[in-house]
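Subject: design request, 82 residues
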């Protein structure tokens, strides 16, 4: 997971975001398995993209980052359209 994290984001922050964050976007057409964007702002805004394999009961962390105004809407939760 270290290679997927932005510098300064700690593993514990990502795990906490997964536990208490809210799903703000879903990507059901992603392959090989669907993914979702989770937002948490407990200590600071954090977005985590995960893929959940319900058959294997496994959660794959794809990336984690602190959102900025270039990539998200002003609410700091909603990803801007591509």
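Subject: RE: design request

Done. Sequence follows.
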């Amino acid at each position: 997971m270290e290679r997927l994290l932005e510098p300064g984001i700690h593993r514990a922050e990502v795990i906490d975001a997964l536990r208490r964050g809210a799903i703000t976007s879903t990507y059901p057409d992603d392959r090989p398995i669907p993914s979702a964007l989770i937002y948490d702002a407990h200590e600071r805004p954090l977005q985590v993209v995960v893929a959940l394999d319900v058959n294997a009961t496994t959660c794959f962390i794809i990336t984690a980052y602190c959102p900025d105004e270039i990539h998200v809407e002003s609410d700091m939760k909603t990803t801007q359209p591509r």
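The longest strand covers residues 46-53.
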